Amino acid sequence: MRTTDFGADFTWGVASAAFQVEGAWDRDGKAPSVWDEACRRGRVRGGTDCRDGIDAFDRLDEDLDLIAALGVGANRFSVSWPRVFGDGRGPWNAAGGAYYDRLIDGCLERGLEPWLTVHHWDLPLALQQEGGWARRGIVEDFAGFAEEVGRRYGDRVRHWMVFNEPLSVVGHIAGGVHARRLGPRPLEALASMHHMNLAIAEAGRRLRDVLPSGAQVGTTNVFTLASPFHTDDGRLRRAQRAAEAFAVDGFLDPLAGRGYPFDDSPFLRPMRRFVRDGDEAAMAFDVDFMGVQYYGPLPMRRVPLLGGLPTAWERTSEARVRSSVGIPVDARGLTELLRRYRHHPACPRFVITESGFGMNDRVDGDGRIHDDLRIWVARTHLQAVREAQRDGVAVDGFFQWSYADNIEWVLGRSARFGLVHVDYDDDMRRRPKDSYHWFRRFLTEGTAPDVAAAGAADRTD
Ligand code: BGC
Q1: Whose Cα sits closest to atom 12 in ligand 1?
Q2: How many domains does the chain have?
Q3: Domain presence at residue 406
Q4: What separation in angstroms does the CA of 439 have from each of 195, 278, 379, 392?
């Protein structure tokens, strides 16, 4: 596998998100987010207070040096809404905003393109206390925040993603999990989903208004395909379709101006009560690219009477590996989703904005972190992208989640996704893993080394 196989303009990058890495949770006028509050209340695994993230705020130069040395051309990060906009509606907090100036300028100085995600789940706590995403007025709050972020950084940032994986936030609300431990709230989740769809389109328009021409405005979604990807069982297929229509088309169709796929998914139908006249048009926005986040499929199996239900991965999945956060790994799903959605009007072209693998990495006796499995996952997913490209699907970039281990939301420090190991017991010391060295050789030499060779290169560093 060669980097040039992917195309001359292909973007190679790493991704992270504000809450998961920054720390500095109360510095320079930053207000609390729902995730700071979850930490404070001991809702993160083991009751660990993870508000310090991985201290990226204070280690900006060290981290950017590591990212640049990896050989990637882009760094994807998100802006913390409560850092720059306090309780959610501003005014702009100049001291907090200065952090992103440092980050963006630091990227550009090192030849890294900054890819900015406007929002990655760290809602200002004050807005949550007013009802969070279930309150329709949040659409205007979010659009105002996005517009101001566009104004402040649009002179230097050319690639924009409006919202990270809205489905995940809908899931947190529906299940009453993660930061919002309120018990299951299915209707609140549907109202929130609708408001997110309105907010994404409105924020996209506001960004376009303030960004220089040539700026690329996209967004990201988690493409949760049901597996098995092909089945002759008609009832199972209909059940799979209902799940996918909710999880994927429920975000893509509104963006394309088609409204919701109510006919395909009974789960969506109760949402009708929240949809007002004119909303279908208001949810439409022409993205320049669709960010694909893919970690694995949703295994489903046939259930008498019901047709099909999500089930434990072992019982249905052809996947051989599962990540430490319980996701079955199946690179074929990536090719499959790219093929299936290539003609969707909300997907003019794709960028893989997240792909990665969670495992319980340990520092070995030789001081190294031998994460061969992560390398295997990266390699197979890159091959899956190539396969889709060979079919003519436009895929322009691949961002590895994440440059370093970080706070895995409610799992806290217990799941590691980084190319760089973070030692939480030793002053957050950074140590490149074997996967970091594998990527570095691949990106700087142009050919993917086999795993043993990556390890050997490692020893000479
Ligand atoms: C999220 C990341 C998260 C990753 C691994 C994605 O859904 O965008 O924030 O860390 O998955 O679970």
Answers
A1: 408
A2: 1
A3: yes
A4: 39, 47, 10, 25
Res 326: pLDDT:
79
Atom number, ligand 1, closest to the C-alpha of residue 402 = 10
- Catalytic residue, chosen from 113, 147, 148, 165, is 165
461 located within any domain: no
Q: How far is the CA of 146 from the centre of ligand 1 (A)?
A: 21
Q: Is residue 359 part of a domain?
A: yes
Which of 72, 71, 88 lies closest to 80 in space, CA to CA? 88
Mean pLDDT of the chain: 94
Taking the CA atoms of 197, 158, 11 and 53 in sequence, report the sign of the dihedral they define: negative
Does residue 316 register a pLDDT over 60?
Answer: no
Tell me: the pLDDT tens digits for 45-84?
999 999 999 999 999 999 999 999 999 999 999 999 999 9
Question: Is 269 within 8 Å of 250 (Cβ atoms)?
Answer: no
pLDDT in tens, 282-296: 999 999 999 999 999
Question: Could you give the percent of the chain with pLDDT greater than 90?
Answer: 87
pLDDT digits (tens, 9 = 90+) for 128-145: 999 999 999 999 999 999
Question: Per the domain annotation, does 191 fall within a domain?
Answer: yes
- Which is the closest atom of ligand 1 to the Cα of 327? 12
> Which CATH number fits the domain that encloses residue 79?
3.20.20.80
Residue 93 has pLDDT above 90, yes or no: yes
pLDDT band at 457 (very low <50, low <70, confident <90, very high): very low
pTM (whole model) above 0.85: yes
Q: What region does 24 belong to: left with phi over 0, alpha with psi -120 to 50, or beta?
A: left
Round to whole Å and give the CA distance between 402 and 6. Answer: 21
For residues 61 and 107, give the distance between their C-alpha atoms in angstroms, rounded to a whole number.
9
Q: Which residue has the higher pLDDT, 246 or 450?
A: 246
Residues 6 or more apart in contact with residue 366 via CB below 8 angstroms = none
Structural domain boundaries, residue 121 = 3-456
- Residue 202: active-site member: no
Please name the amino acid found at residue 43: R
Atom of ligand 1 nearest to the CA of 168: 7
Q: Select from 401, 417, 419 the residue to mutate for testing ligand 1; criterion: most ligand atoms less than 8 Å from CB.
A: 401
Q: How far is the CA of 273 from the centre of ligand 1 (A)?
A: 31
Pocket of ligand 1 (CB under 6 A): 17, 20, 164-165, 168, 222, 293, 295, 325, 354, 401, 408, 417
